[in-house]
Specification:
heterodimer; A: mainly beta; 4-stranded antiparallel sheet; 11 strands; globular; B: mainly beta; 7-stranded mixed sheet; 55% strand
């Protein structure tokens, strides 16, 4: 199975800061990677799909890059409403889905 | 409007069984892959299993941690997905989400575009 390493596991940043989260996979997964945001007490919400495509309705301060085994998720200017936990998720036929361990984002 | 609503969670003893239901509305259920994803208290997301759509024969796959114990089924006439959980272990304690996979033009993607709010399963003696 493809192993996923997401880092950091948590971070604290100030409003307006640029925030970067990385996700590394043990095997080449092309661009089959999505990013989700989960706010406390809520279900996750997809922000980025296919590594770099912005889901409809998601603010453009969120972005994703990468291909193969190394992926990056960025919030260009952190806002108070962005607190929560972010997950990368790979997909393929078998096993269909695997999630990264998550990154908890807090405001300093 | 797409809606996904889980039910059936509760407290069950180790070794017991429980059946979760997921009622959906607002879209053509038979066109979509559906997943179960769980989240243990204070932990991350774990994929549990998937049901493909009608055109792909409703085939199912499971995570290694639940294979042989959990069974996914669906009833398109009732617009419902089910998760039969048998031989439950304490480590199955989690919030269980029912989730819709994005599908368009007969092709399904790897991203989940709608989630329910989850139903809590607690396995404890």
């Amino acid at each position: 199975d493809v192993q996923m390493t997401q880092s950091p596991s948590s971070l604290s940043a100030s409003v307006g800061d640029r925030v970067t989260i990385t996700c590394q996979t043990s095997h080449d997964i092309n661009n089959y990677l999505n990013w989700y945001q989960q706010k406390p007490g809520k279900a996750p919400k997809v922000l980025i799909y296919d590594a770099s495509k912005l889901e409809i309705g998601v603010p453009p301060r969120f972005s994703g890059t990468g291909s193969g085994t190394h992926f990056t998720f960025t919030i260009s200017s952190l806002q108070p409403e962005d607190i929560g936990t972010y997950y990368c998720q790979r997909y393929d036929d078998l096993p269909p889905l695997t999630f990264g361990g998550g990154t908890k984002v807090e405001i300093k | 409007e797409v809606q996904v609503v889980e039910s059936g969670g509760g407290l069950v003893q180790p070794g017991g069984s429980l059946r979760l239901s997921c009622a959906v509305s607002g879209f053509t259920f038979s066109d979509h892959y559906m997943d179960w994803v769980r989240q243990a208290p204070g932990k991350g997301l774990e994929w549990v299993g998937r049901s493909r759509n009608k055109i792909n024969g409703y085939t199912t796959e499971y995570a290694a941690s639940v294979k042989g114990r959990f069974i996914i089924s669906r009833d398109d006439s009732r617009m419902s997905l089910f998760l039969q959980m048998n031989s439950l272990k304490t480590e199955d304690t989690a919030l269980y989400y029912c989730a819709r996979r994005y599908c368009s033009g007969g092709s399904c993607h790897g991203r989940i575009d709608y989630w329910g709010q989850g139903t809590l399963v607690t396995v404890s003696s």
